[in-house]
Amino acid sequence: MIIVVSPEATPDDIDVIVARIEETGRQAHLSVGTERSIIGVIGPDDPSLQDIFESLPHVESVHRVTKPYKLVSREFHPGASVIDVGHGVSIGGPELAVMAGPCSIENEKHMVETAIAVKAAGANILRGGAFKPRSSPYAFRGLGNDGLRHLATASRETGMPVVTELMSVRDIDAVCEHSDIIQIGARNMQNFILLDEVGMAKKPVLLKRALSGQIEEWLLAAEYIMAQGNPHVILCERGIRTFETAYRNTFDVNAIPLVKELSHLPVIADPSHGTGKLSLVTPVAMAGIAAGADGLMIEVHNNPEHALSDGPQSLTYERFASMMRSVAGIASAVERTLPGVWAPAAAR
Amino acid sequence: MIIVVSPEATPDDIDVIVARIEETGRQAHLSVGTERSIIGVIGPDDPSLQDIFESLPHVESVHRVTKPYKLVSREFHPGASVIDVGHGVSIGGPELAVMAGPCSIENEKHMVETAIAVKAAGANILRGGAFKPRSSPYAFRGLGNDGLRHLATASRETGMPVVTELMSVRDIDAVCEHSDIIQIGARNMQNFILLDEVGMAKKPVLLKRALSGQIEEWLLAAEYIMAQGNPHVILCERGIRTFETAYRNTFDVNAIPLVKELSHLPVIADPSHGTGKLSLVTPVAMAGIAAGADGLMIEVHNNPEHALSDGPQSLTYERFASMMRSVAGIASAVERTLPGVWAPAAAR
Amino acid sequence: MIIVVSPEATPDDIDVIVARIEETGRQAHLSVGTERSIIGVIGPDDPSLQDIFESLPHVESVHRVTKPYKLVSREFHPGASVIDVGHGVSIGGPELAVMAGPCSIENEKHMVETAIAVKAAGANILRGGAFKPRSSPYAFRGLGNDGLRHLATASRETGMPVVTELMSVRDIDAVCEHSDIIQIGARNMQNFILLDEVGMAKKPVLLKRALSGQIEEWLLAAEYIMAQGNPHVILCERGIRTFETAYRNTFDVNAIPLVKELSHLPVIADPSHGTGKLSLVTPVAMAGIAAGADGLMIEVHNNPEHALSDGPQSLTYERFASMMRSVAGIASAVERTLPGVWAPAAAR
Amino acid sequence: MIIVVSPEATPDDIDVIVARIEETGRQAHLSVGTERSIIGVIGPDDPSLQDIFESLPHVESVHRVTKPYKLVSREFHPGASVIDVGHGVSIGGPELAVMAGPCSIENEKHMVETAIAVKAAGANILRGGAFKPRSSPYAFRGLGNDGLRHLATASRETGMPVVTELMSVRDIDAVCEHSDIIQIGARNMQNFILLDEVGMAKKPVLLKRALSGQIEEWLLAAEYIMAQGNPHVILCERGIRTFETAYRNTFDVNAIPLVKELSHLPVIADPSHGTGKLSLVTPVAMAGIAAGADGLMIEVHNNPEHALSDGPQSLTYERFASMMRSVAGIASAVERTLPGVWAPAAAR
């Protein structure tokens, strides 16, 4: 940590600052400049120190020189993490993960049918929401445990691992029982209690970036999970909130390579939420893979105008299959593979 | 709801849209324009309909014409709500609420001493955090239940109602037992499970605006609480996240009069978080009251450079007292009163 | 400037960095830490150096410790600047400046009538746009030189100094001839050529903050003007662009006290553009003055639904007079005065 | 245009609104709903009408149903525009445009050497700044006309068309004489005077998106140029300003496919400014092409730590060549070609 001292500070003022540094068990290294003096704080970092030093009189600014996270960082774990999510699927290796399915689970028949359709088009992980975060208390909030059971049925029928959102600690056992990956949604990225709890679970966790989550906060949220002993964290960029109103969110493609540089964790691109606009899903999916994402998360619905949520950004089965063909070329250009095409028993 | 039809739509395409509207039990009112046709949807509003209509082919855009919230709106409840928070204090009436105290509760002695000091300077509600949301898992996260007890002690000693943050459903009984107002922090504004739970409690709730929470989302979060039967909701503007890096947050003063116009709920200004910068707290507190806020929430610490959190934005007792004198003139200009000055027994 | 060296850097790598520092004529002060080394750069600051040092191998980050502006800073000029704008009016002293008038100048009669009305309600500076920046090339772009003449007529009739926007270097002579304060609009805050030119003029300049202008960039834009020899710069906060769509812009009230702290220049609040919404103009005007602004800029139109631009945020004469009464109480609370009330000859 | 009437409006109030609509020469089509009435405005669109109708009493909101731009829209010109920029290079066709070169022109020798190097690596357009917009008045502001001459020399030596920024109307003749494409920088996107002037020139114009420019404003800026008779407009996405501080700007990849959908104009991706960070330039360049961009704009400098500006985001010759190899695979996946590799005479 570096402390910049205000120009008007006297040597006595500086002594007060140095004394407070030493009180924390660190050493102070003073460097007297022509206009301002600078004090280097030498010793173990602690995020609370910044606030403490900024509160001292005659301190102009405090600059951190080390990253506030450790377990998620590349420095700590130089190789890329590959996370086994069950049913023979891994995330972070050469094969891309393709998570697809409806925003909300609607019924068993629809879930199974969708699972078969997305697998046939090349998805290898099934998504579906049983617990839905909705801005309005009057909107449909998901089928809950019934939805989890439909998801599990679809998983058994197709052999695909499944991912579903967990909104509350009280549902953690049910979600763990019926799914393979626990999703933490954007609105819960800094629900620290929930992060602690999924950190104590053994399941892989898909951690979505908050609407206004800075990269550092997102990685610290992942650190929460890892600090509780769960190393199986997958990050998901799903668009941020900006001044632009032409789309629901702005997919932050810069985040993909930066997070891969700062962290060893895999990163998934979600162009469905990242754009909120049907016609942009395919090109932004392609962009995400080109930028280095380890996979995609895509909302698919056979009949978007009857979907219980997120219809406007859901691809039909045909458009999803077409998207997969477009992504295939990009995947090959970046030396990644897509899951093999699969045909359900009925079609074989 | 108004549906704008794409220019290329044929009469048959429009029939499909009309049929889907009628399927939802609403009537369609078609208006054929020179360039585009417009369809008015007549019947009860439902937030899910927008997604459904936007998913239809040949729909260019869908415009909502009614507000998505009801219980929190001025149309539903034209008079301003005044919320009794106990110990003879109300929020939303002519007397301003002044919530003051440390960011984190540190120990009983410090809490009681601070309570006496802030009351002496004119505060009428005591704040203090027992459960602290922290970006880093390695930062101090609060004293938990011990903190709640210290807060209750300070409340008894000074006769002030207290407000403290609830982060998890599991702590709701303890927080209700020891405090008078439950705070929902900015990061939990859309933790819908927590909103439901405090909606079922009988306590007043202080609902902070999220870092990137739009006014409509904030009011819908309040609607969650009211929809569960708890009408005692107090809103708190605490700054939003913007591109500006000269302060931690940007206090959104526009929000104060707009929320007072759209809703009957009282609104508190939090210039400590709204600026994150000591020298800005007093002028922004004055601005908040001038704009119509029903009170203030201020971080106070006798020794900011030893505070366990948020030192850089905490006022000392002296600065807090000075701020209160500055606010007094503004309060009087907007025909509001400040709580009367109080002297502890020892000083009488 | 402080350079943080990457952890993997060898002593030889550090030597390369030190050599590049010395090549610029500065001294390098090395401080070896447990995890990273830090190099203080000692000598005169130059904004280009940051880019140069950030481009060096093994440099992790570069932190500036001095402000990049000088002439506009409080360190350079500790007292507040008071700017004489003619006709006996000054900005930055105890009397607040109140600039009022229509968004666009419409005709001579309307301009004179408006001038009389706003002066009667307490304005002391007349505003009116002859050259209008419009997002669309098909919108009304102002009366140009004719507008300037109408403004000058209204100034003569009422004895008020006038402020009007300059959009192009080619109109600088006409604008200087007919007005007392040259306004640089938000979209031209970083039109550096225009800044240079008004820097060479002798007139006071009202410099609006850009929609996404950071405080530092805004002060550097003022520095451009002062660096050319024109010290008469008045800043104007007019709202920034954020994610919030409930208002056209978000008035950044934090900016008012921060700019007063960093700079000696006066600051005007523009709640008309800062909100874009009629019902918010008065409370935000009050907030701006409470936060320390040196005056207001308000759009006034007797018949907003016939205004050639910005009708929705324009106050009628009555609402403007009412706003002035509300502001008067706040002004008095912060020990500022409003211009005296004035009656036109006809009414005396 | 659709006008939503407030619930409290009486039939007489509605008559007033209808009368004002008819006064503008449009027809009003009233649709009485259960909660609110809606009025469709039928007749030619005019951007000023929105303000007028919003200013009327009892108008709750006004919704535009047509786009405010015409010449730039796909509806007006369904096929993609291909723009001939001279020297046998076109932008918008199957071959991608690759604009490369230094941020600032430094001297003739360096410019020619860089031109040869970037052409050898596959660039087909040379970039270089003679007039530099700089936040600080004390930073290097470019070589001016000398720089233009060096650029022209490098163009002659390599046969490449050149692009350079125009900041002021006074330099338009010099810039037109020495360059093939006039660049309008992000800070001048809404410098409407400059847009008018380049609209009257015959040269192709590269129009960068403003830091907080909404898609609609960007297209309207292009409309300014086209409305003056110059159809040769090329758009350039260069990153927007958001809350994220981990990079200088956030490259908005959503904008690429959306602008291609709304407009027939070609779009260039600038990952150098879009990230401001060396390690992100290549992956974001790949993402831009994958999303459908018609080309790239890349800052290249053989010795970034001696560059006069933008060193931290400049690629060396080697990194640029390596980027081109990475982009080649993506280009091929989206059925675009890169300019052929070229060897200077000396190397042949």
Write the layout of secondary structure elements.
4 copies of one chain form a homotetramer.
Chain A: E1 2-5, H1 11-23, E2 27-32, E3 37-42, H2 47-54, E4 59-63, E5 83-86, E6 89-91, E7 97-101, H3 108-120, E8 125-127, H4 145-158, E9 162-165, H5 172-178, E10 181-184, H6 192-200, E11 205-208, H7 215-227, E12 233-237, H8 255-262, E13 267-269, H9 271-275, H10 278-290, E14 295-299, H11 317-333
Parallel strand pairs in A: 7-8, 7-14, 8-9, 9-10, 10-11, 11-12, 12-13
Antiparallel strand pairs in A: 1-3, 1-4, 2-3, 5-6
Helix pairs in contact in A: 3-4, 6-7, 10-11
Describe this structure in words.
Four copies of one chain form a homotetramer. Chain A is of the alpha/beta class. Chain A folds into two domains: 2-63, Phospho-2-dehydro-3-deoxyheptonate aldolase, domain 1 (Alpha-Beta Plaits), CATH 3.30.70.1140; 83-347, TIM Barrel (Alpha-Beta Barrel). Chain A contains eleven helices and 14 strands. Chain A has helices at residues 11-23, 47-54, 108-120, 145-158, 172-178, 192-200, 215-227, 255-262, 271-275, 278-290, 317-333; strands at 2-5, 27-32, 37-42, 59-63, 83-86, 89-91, 97-101, 125-127, 162-165, 181-184, 205-208, 233-237, 267-269, 295-299. In chain A, the strands form three sheets. Chain A has an eight-stranded parallel sheet with strand order 13-12-11-10-9-8-7-14. A four-stranded antiparallel sheet of chain A has the order 2-3-1-4. Chain A has a two-stranded antiparallel ribbon with strand order 5-6. In chain A, helix 7 (215-227) links the parallel strand 11 and strand 12 (233-237). In chain A, helix 3 packs parallel to helix 4 and helix 10 runs parallel beside helix 11 (317-333). The longest helix of chain A has 17 residues, at 317-333. Chains in contact: A-B, A-C, A-D, B-C, B-D, C-D. At the A-B interface, helix 2, helix 6 and helix 7 of A face helix 2, helix 6 and helix 7 of B.
